[in-house]
Structure formats: C-alpha cells, structure tokens
C-alpha cells in the first residue's frame, strides 16, 4: 500500500492550501520546514488548520517538538465551574489536532493514533467526572453502603473506547453502574440510584452539549440495560440480574470489549469478572454465530435501505466485518481458552492465530486490512472533525483524501480499497458459511421430518440398516420424546439438519443399530443445550469426528453422551496439535483448587480430566501417537488428579481438625498406575503412608484444630477422604475407581501405614508377589521427603540378595495359578493380558529379573514402566539388543491391542493376527530363555491372597 510520506508535498488544489495558510501571520510561515508541515496538514484537515489558527500557542508547541508528549488535562475546580465546558472542549480540540499533526506527518502509525484518541477521551472523561464528583459531594455528600463504605460511580466504556482503539471523531459508548445501594451523607442526601443517575446525566451533558466551543465528546448511553427505556445508572446487582434474565446476543458482543474508563476502576474490574460467564460460555459456543447472523442481517438491511455501500465501517468488507469475525471466534472459543479474551482487535487476532483458529496468512491479511481501513476512516473524520464512515461524494474531498494518503488520485485509492474490502468480505462470509457446506442426507431428511407419525422405513433400508424396522422404532420413539417435542423453532431447525446426517452415517457402520443407539443417546442429552446442537449444525468437521468416534469407540460414545461438554474437544484446535507434556497436566488440573467449595472443585477437576483423557483417546484412535505414549499420558493425568485431590482433602481436614506439625504424608501408585501404563477407564491401585513424630512416651502428636485428632486417626481420615473424593459421583461422573487392597496385610491391614511399619513389613513379612508388585510401584503424590524415604525402602527391599532357584519357583507357581484361573483365551481368541505370551507374562519376566539381579545391578531399580525395564535389562546384559528390540515391539503390539479393546469397552481379548502371534512368540521365547515355566498346572504360590490376584 502506498506510503503517504513518499511525496514531499501532497498533490491537491494549491488554491485550497493557499487559503488555509492565509489564516496564519507571515512570520509564522517564514520557516520553510514549518510551512511545509502546515501545507501537508492543510491537505488532510480543515479542522486542524482552524484549531491551529485559533490557538497560536498550540502551533508553537507543535513546531517545537511535533507534539511528542500528550497535552496535560485542564484543571477543573470549584473556582472555574462556569468554564468547565469551554476548558474541556478546547482541550479535546487541541489534543485531536496534535493527533492529526502526528498522523499526517507520518510521526504516528495508525495504532498510535487509535491509542492516542482513546487516551484523550479517557482523560476528558476522568477530569470531568472527578470535578463533578467533588461538586456533588459538596451538595449531597458521598454515597455510602450499609457498612459505611464510600461508593463511587463506575463508567464503563464499550465499543472502540473499551477496546482502546477509538477512532478520531467517534462518539463514546458509556454505561453507568455502581457497586451497591446506599444513600449519600450530605446536607441534601440522595438515594444511590438518584445520586448516580444525576451524576451520570451531568457528565454526559458536560461532554456532549453543543456550546460556542463545539462539543467535547458525543455520548451514547443506549447500550445500557433496556436501552433508552432503562435507568441511567444501575447497581451491580441489578446489572447482574438483567444479564442473567434479559441478556441478548448483541450484548455479549458489546460487553466483550467493556472496560472501566472512569470512576471506581477497581470495582469495575471486579464486576466484569462476574460478568465473564455471560460473555464467554464455558463450552464452545457456536450459537454465537446465530447472534452474528442476526446482527449482520440487520446491518445489511440498513446498508441497503440507506445506500451505504460506500460505508467503510458498515458496508461489505468493512471494519465491522473484521470486528465481528474476530469477536465471533472469541465468543465461540474464549470460554475454554482465556488467552482469547482480548478487548483490542489486533491483539485478539494475534491470540486467535496463536491458538490455531486463524492461519498466519489470514491473520496477517486481516491485520493489514484493519489498519488500512481504520487509517482511511480517521482521515475521513480528520477532514472536518465529523463522525463519518462513508467515502466522500465531493470530488475535491476525494482528491484531498487520496493525496493525503499518498495516492496519485482517487481512482488509485479506490482500486486499492476495493481489493482490501473484497478480501475482508470473503473471510467474513467463510465464517458464516459452514452450515451450507454439509452434505445433504437425501431421502432421510424427508423421513425424519415426517416422524413420529409419518415416514417410510424404506429410507432406512436404503441407507444400509440391517434391521431397518428396529432403527425406525428407535427414531420414532426419539421423535416422540418431550425433549424433541418441546424444542424452540430455531433448535428444532438445527436438529432437523443434524439428525439425517447422523442417521445416514450410522447406516454405513458395520453395526448400524448399535451406532444409532449411541448417537440417539447423545442427542437426547444435548437437546436442552442449544450450543451443542449449534456446534454440530455449524461445523461439519465436528459432526464427522463425532460419527467417527462413536462408530469406533464405545468408550468415547459413552463419555460424550454422559458429558456433552466433551463435544468441544471435537473442534478444539489443541486436539489436532501435540498432546500435553508431563509438566502441563498438573497446572491444568490445579485450576480446580481456585474453587473453595469442594463439590465445585471436583466438578471442574473431573471436567478437566475428562477433556484431557478424551483428547488422548482421540489421538490414540486417530493413530496420531503410539499406545505407549497414550498409556503414559493417562498415568501422568492420574498423578495430577491425585495431587489435586490430596490438596482438597488436606484443605478439608485442616478446616475441621487443624494440622499436625512436622508430619508427612504420601501416596504410592501400584500396578498400571505405578508402571505408567494406564488404560482408558482403568482404576487406580493406591497405598497411603505417613510419618509423624511422637511426643515422648505420651504417644502420637495431635492436630492443632478445635477438634484435635491424634496422628493415626488424622491420617486415616485423610486417606478415607481421598478415596471418597476420588470416587464421588458428580455430573461429570466419578474421577476414578480406587483399590486399596494392596496395602500391607491387604484387606486386614490399616488403610494408612506408618513409614516405619511399611518398612518393617516389606523386610520381614511381605511375600515374593508383593515384592514383584513393588518393582512397578511409584511415589505419585505427597511430601517429597517422604517420597525419598519410601524410594530408599523400595531400593533396599528390591536390592537384597535372593536365591535364584527359590525366586524362580515362586514366580513360576504364582504365574501358573493366575493363568489357570484368569486366562480367558480360547480357540476363538487370545487374552491379551493373562494369556500365554501376554502382557502379564512379560511383566513377570521383568519382575523376576529385577528381583534376581538388582543386588548386583542397582540400575535395574530405576525404571517402573515396561519399556524402561526392558532397556535396563538390556544395559545390564540380561537381553541382547535383538531380544530387547523384539520385546519392546511385542509390548507395543500387545498394549496397543489392549487399548483398542478398552476404547471400545471390550474385554482385552482379540482374534489372533500375525502381529499378536509374533508378539506372543517373542515373549514366550524370552520367558523360556530366563528359565521360567508358566504353562504347567501346579499348586498355589506361597502367600497367595485375593490382593495378589487383584494386582497381578
């Protein structure tokens, strides 16, 4: 785009420039540099030239430093009360002239001009309000709430003022509010509502009223609740009630940019935080597009009615379309991603690009277009300080605008502008177009719309249903439900577009009836949530991903039907990106701790867990990552959840019973959690430990609360609370099923063990199978120093010398008994976990090698996961490189097959294929090479318990 500084003197009618310069004394024009600057300003702004002629001091200041610093605000006090309007107007004119000067001379870019216009408006607002507040306080006192605290007016700036990007000659959209009701304490007291209404009216009059000096700012109060029919100022409570009951879509767009600009700024910020759920919904909110369509239609009608095609704000491809595009994407995604909650448009576009909702190319094109249009808009308004957005009809004005912006003539500017607007219009139309991109579902549309009383079942047979009559019955029953019958017209229209597409997709599935049942269960649960219907209606990609997930995974179908919030994951840009790293799980889960109410915290925590596990499941299902990575991420997620639940339980215990100084607590994960190989829907095997100092011969230390408990009871209750919280059923389901039978002495032992008793048990009374379990155990939450102590106990226990023959007999006997009782393999298929050559055979092999050789090779004690143990054994020379590689591959095959089963809610049993057969052969060979024999039927192992069978 053209550089306005490319010409030393813009091309314009020299007679116009001469007439403008004739208003200045000759000595002012004697300086060639100053004269050149004035010539440039004369082309662009009659307003600025008039102001400079009337205020010689202003010109002198600009000549000195080109207006490098904003002008100081006027002093408004009781002594010059009658001069307030004139002082404010002259200040606004001077400040605006400074902005023209710097813009025209190329000293400020358009961003700086918009920021300067905003700052000038705020300066005038704050000066005027402060003076009026002092005046009101002298006559009516200060409003105080019931506790005697002073209450001030809050002035919210909406629109471009709120966004910090006010155009040159804009009005200001204001809303007045106050924190709480009360009464002023002066000689003529007023109730808060009357006090702040009068104060707000006088503020608007002081700024808006036309005087001999013109106006300061046009004030628009129509965006307040109920518009012109509403009260001038409302309490925060009344505002909140209004938005809960009456808030409309266009108000979400308006309040998205809201910002306190004068008065009690801190109170204003607090109120906006409470209003955030109205503006940004917690889920992906494609219903916001309906509001956008309505607003766009109204604007288009106005453009057509008033012939506003040349309006660069409201016309096609104008500023408003860029703003609406960014705001719509913010409203859709901002409830889930706080990074997108930006008032300023350019920052919003950057955030949307960073979150992958806009491509870099689209972001850059929109940013360039926005700056181009805003600069042109400013120049249109700078010409005569008029709030105009339409291109000028006067030929002379057109040439002045073109010359001031560095174009050879109006035609060149217009050609460039048309390209910019066409690009914006294309991007905006694309946002509203997805609904039209969905494939038609053919005859199924007519079939569905005829239900429940009409409709020809032949349409279902043609769609591929093996049992069309059963599918027809299910669909008719669904159509008769009150949820469908009572839908609003708009929601029913969405459902009528979505159902045929889902029915057609289900008909193409292998088990069409099963898939249809899953989809109808989901639809039943989202009928009252218009936003989810909107998501499926607006986004073909979401609909397609939903069908794919439901067809391939009973687990995902069940999760989505139970918690429709997970539908958001189908379109969240983060889903297609890299999965979270280990260190990112904890901060995301820890956000639940912001809720003081434990039930609310559990709800948020479970929604976070469900969303993250859903994302991992989608990546597994899509083949975007290996099963090993998914299993490890599920374990990391469980670690993070357990850590948060521990904090919640500690918080409740400390409130009820106080704390125990110097005591330590920790949680150990066994089994698949400890081995970082968790599956979808897996439960958690946990052991709880504590360590507390004793007080002489008097026994355990007691907690320091109003209802003290000794350490044993305190930590027992803490563990009970953790188990209860993890298993609490919320609207999002329960967090995890928990098994605690692996503690010392199993179900007969205490729920929580002291560190000393745990140490003694492992060294004196634990059976071989319990030491096997310890190989995969891992400290997952609690006091770090206790974790270090536990790891030392684990190392000492596993690292003691053992007789190889006795150890081999124990391991063999345990595995044989388990396989006899638990192996579900048959002639039709293979039990991936318990079958011969399956996952447990591999785990037993590795555990045997660790117990046998750790005394000589301590490095075997470091890993807990199966791939890590294989690598450690290879490094210790227990496997050659080929065997280690084959075992890693075998483990990957078996684990992936198992995860596929759990994703579809099937037991881990598969029809054996070449990959599984090869994996089994590799495991069998490694077991035999180690001298282990798992396939003979012998007696039960020593120390067999239900807990051993449960774990292994």
TrEMBL record:
Residues 439-952 are annotated as: Adenylyl transferase. Its EC number is 2.7.7.89, 2.7.7.42. Residues 37-273, 544-787 form the Glutamate-ammonia ligase adenylyltransferase repeated domain. Signal peptide: none annotated. Residues 293-431, 813-894 form the PII-uridylyltransferase/Glutamine-synthetase adenylyltransferase domain. The keyword Transferase applies. GO terms for molecular function: ligase activity; nucleotidyltransferase activity. InterPro entries: GlnE (IPR023057), GlnE_rpt_dom (IPR005190), NT_sf (IPR043519), PII_UdlTrfase/GS_AdlTrfase (IPR013546). The keyword Transmembrane does not apply. Its cofactor is Mg(2+). CDD domains: NT_GlnE_GlnD_like. Residues 1-435 are annotated as: Adenylyl removase. Keywords: ATP-binding, Ligase, Magnesium, Multifunctional enzyme, Nucleotide-binding, Nucleotidyltransferase, Transferase. It holds the Pfam family GlnE. It catalyses: [glutamine synthetase]-L-tyrosine + ATP = [glutamine synthetase]-O(4)-(5'-adenylyl)-L-tyrosine + diphosphate; [glutamine synthetase]-O(4)-(5'-adenylyl)-L-tyrosine + phosphate = [glutamine synthetase]-L-tyrosine + ADP. Belongs to the GlnE family. Involved in the regulation of glutamine synthetase GlnA, a key enzyme in the process to assimilate ammonia. When cellular nitrogen levels are high, the C-terminal adenylyl transferase (AT) inactivates GlnA by covalent transfer of an adenylyl group from ATP to specific tyrosine residue of GlnA, thus reducing its activity. Conversely, when nitrogen levels are low, the N-terminal adenylyl removase (AR) activates GlnA by removing the adenylyl group by phosphorolysis, increasing its activity. This is Bifunctional glutamine synthetase adenylyltransferase/adenylyl-removing enzyme. It comes from Luteimonas lutimaris.
């Amino acid at each position: 785009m053209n550089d306005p500084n490319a010409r030393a003197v813009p091309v314009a009618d020299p007679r116009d420039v001469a007439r403008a310069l004739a208003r200045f004394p000759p000595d002012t024009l004697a300086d060639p540099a100053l004269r050149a600057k004035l010539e440039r300003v004369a082309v662009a702004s009659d307003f600025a030239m008039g102001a400079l002629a009337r205020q010689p001091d202003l010109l002198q200041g600009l000549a000195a430093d080109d207006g490098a610093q904003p002008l100081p605000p006027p002093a408004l006090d009781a002594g010059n009360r009658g001069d307030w309007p004139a002082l404010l107007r002259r200040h606004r004119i001077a400040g605006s002239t400074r902005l023209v000067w710097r813009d025209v001379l190329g000293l400020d870019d358009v961003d700086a001009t918009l920021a300067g216009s905003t700052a000038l408006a705020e300066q005038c607002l704050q000066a005027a309000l402060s003076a009026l507040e002092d005046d009101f306080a002298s006559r009516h006192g200060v409003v105080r709430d019931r506790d005697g605290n002073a209450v001030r007016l809050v002035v919210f700036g909406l629109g471009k003022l709120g966004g910090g990007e006010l155009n040159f000659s804009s009005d200001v959209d204001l809303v007045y509010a106050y924190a709480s009701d009360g009464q002023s304490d002066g000689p003529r007291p007023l109730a808060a509502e009357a006090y702040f209404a009068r104060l707000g009216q006088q503020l608007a009059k002081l700024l808006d009223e036309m005087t001999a000096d013109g106006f300061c700012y046009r004030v628009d109060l129509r965006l307040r609740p109920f518009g012109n029919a509403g009260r001038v100022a409302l309490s925060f409570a009344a505002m909140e009630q209004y938005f809960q009951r009456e808030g409309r879509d266009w108000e979400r767009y308006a309040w998205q940019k809201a910002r306190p600009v004068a008065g009690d700024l801190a109170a204003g910020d607090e109120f906006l935080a409470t209003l955030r759920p109205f503006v940004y919904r917690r889920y992906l909110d494609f219903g916001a597009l309906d509001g956008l369509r309505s607003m766009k239609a109204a604007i288009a009608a106005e453009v057509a009615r008033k012939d506003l095609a040349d309006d660069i704000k409201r016309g096609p491809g104008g500023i408003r379309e860029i703003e609406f595009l960014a705001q719509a994407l913010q409203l859709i995604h901002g409830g889930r991603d706080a990074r997108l909650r930006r008032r300023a448009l350019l920052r919003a576009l950057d955030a949307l690009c960073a979150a992958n909702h806009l491509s870099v190319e689209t972001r850059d094109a929109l940013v360039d277009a926005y700056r181009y249009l805003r600069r042109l808009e400013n120049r249109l308004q700078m010409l005569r300080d008029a709030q105009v957005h339409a291109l000028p009809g006067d030929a002379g004005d057109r040439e002045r605008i073109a010359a001031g912006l560095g174009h050879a003539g109006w035609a060149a500017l217009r050609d460039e502008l048309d390209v910019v607007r066409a690009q914006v219009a294309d991007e905006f139309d694309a946002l509203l177009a997805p609904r039209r991109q969905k494939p038609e579902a053919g005859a199924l549309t007519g079939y569905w719309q005829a239900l429940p009383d009409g409709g020809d079942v032949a349409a279902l047979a043609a769609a591929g249903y093996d049992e069309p009559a059963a599918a027809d019955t299910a669909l008719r029953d669904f159509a008769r439900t009150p949820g469908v019958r009572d839908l609003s017209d708009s929601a029913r229209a969405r459902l009528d577009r979505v159902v045929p597409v889902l029915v057609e997709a289900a008909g193409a599935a292998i088990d069409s009836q099963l898939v249809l049942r899953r989809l109808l269960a989901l639809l039943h649960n989202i009928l009252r949530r218009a936003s989810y219907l909107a998501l499926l209606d607006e986004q073909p990609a979401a609909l397609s991903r939903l069908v794919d997930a439901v067809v391939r995974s009973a687990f995902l179908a069940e999760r989505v039907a139970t918690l429709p919030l997970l539908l958001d994951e189908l379109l969240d840009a983060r889903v297609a990106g890299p999965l979270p790293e280990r260190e990112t799980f904890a901060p995301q889960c820890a956000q639940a701790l912001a809720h003081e109410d434990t039930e609310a915290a559990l709800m948020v925590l479970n929604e976070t867990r469900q969303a993250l596990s859903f994302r991992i499941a989608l990546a597994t299902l899509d083949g975007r990552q290996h099963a090993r990575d998914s299993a490890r991420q599920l374990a990391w997620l469980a670690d993070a959840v357990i850590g948060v639940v521990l904090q919640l339980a500690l918080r409740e215990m400390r409130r009820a019973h106080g704390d125990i100084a110097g005591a330590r607590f920790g949680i150990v994960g066994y089994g698949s959690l400890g081995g970082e190989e968790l599956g979808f829907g897996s439960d958690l095997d946990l052991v709880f430990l504590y360590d507390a100092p004793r007080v002489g011969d008097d026994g355990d230390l007691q907690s320091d609360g109003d209802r003290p408990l000794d350490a044993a009871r305190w930590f027992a209750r803490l563990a009970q609370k953790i188990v209860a919280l993890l298993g609490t059923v919320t609207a999002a389901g329960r967090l995890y099923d928990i098994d605690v039978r692996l503690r010392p002495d199993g179900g007969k032992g205490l729920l929580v063990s002291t560190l000393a008793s745990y140490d003694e048990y492992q060294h004196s009374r634990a059976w071989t199978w319990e030491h096997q379990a310890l190989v995969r155990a891992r400290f997952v939450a609690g006091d770090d120093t206790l974790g270090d102590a536990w790891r030392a106990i684990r190392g000492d226990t596993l690292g003691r010398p053992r007789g190889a023959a006795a150890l081999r007999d124990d391991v063999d006997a345990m595995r044989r008994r388990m396989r006899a009782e638990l192996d579900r393999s048959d002639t039709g298929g293979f039990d991936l976990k318990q079958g011969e050559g399956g996952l447990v055979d591999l785990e037993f092999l590795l555990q045997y090698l660790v117990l046998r050789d750790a005394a000589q090779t301590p490095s075997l004690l470091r890993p807990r996961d199966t791939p890590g143990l294989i690598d450690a054994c290879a490094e210790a020379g227990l496997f050659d490189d080929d065997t280690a590689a084959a075992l890693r591959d075998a483990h990957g095959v078996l684990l992936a097959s198992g995860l596929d089963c759990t994703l579809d809610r099937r037991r881990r049993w598969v029809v054996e294929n070449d990959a599984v057969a090869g994996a089994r052969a590799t495991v069998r060979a490694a077991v035999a090479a180690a001298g282990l024999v798992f396939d003979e039927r012998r007696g039960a192992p020593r120390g067999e318990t239900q807990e051993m069978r449960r774990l292994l």
